[in-house]
Amino acid sequence: MLAKRIIPCLDIKNGRTVKGTNFINLRDAGDPVELGRIYSEQGADELVFLDITATSDKRKTLVSLVEKIAREINIPFTVGGGISRVEDVKALLRAGADKVSVNSAAVYHPDLINELSSCFGNQCIVLAIDANLVDGKWKVFTHGGRRETEKELFSWAREGQERGAGEILFTAMTRDGTKDGFEIEASKTLSETLRIPVIASGGAGNMQHFSDVFLQARVDAALAASVFHYGEIIIKDLKLKLKKDGIRVRI
Question: Of 61, 70, 180, 249, whose CB is crowded by the most CB atoms within 10 A?
Fold first, then answer.
């Protein structure tokens, strides 16, 4: 059984780390280069960098900032935001990214997943899905949670897997920033129906929430932001708690 992964996330806007609730009311959370270095030293298993307004602002991810962060860390580094072409991925990999996360562009042009997987291998491609409950159904949203689409979470995740995505990063918009705990049921459905790893995101508020999502939803990784950014949870302490709960982690 593979060790479960703890992944801090840097949501970037205008070169700064930000965090909000339900994708709105963003507030400053610090310097992304400094935070990346701290998380690497604390024992994070991976780091995710999401330029959250790249698509809505119709621009590309901040490559220079990716380079600065990559120089400060020694853990796998996933970068997303505004990726829509093979050339975008090449630039980010040259800048120090190990994996790329695609979201909005893949929803509107699903063949992008096939193309990127063919060029770089599925281990390099993370399909990020932002989903919200609408009339009892998990609908997929794009453009940083600003646009509702006709796609449904579970069918889109399966399609992404078949097209060559190597992982699914599922963010429950209903939980984002609330600190009420991860979305267990939807995460469990994804982990039970997919062959590829599932990363749960949205809702982490305390250490028990991480134990719950690993033990109950059986996800492969859990991603969080504000609880790490503001020092509410220290990654080393979290891993000791998870190990005590019988969850395999890298210490």
Answer: 61
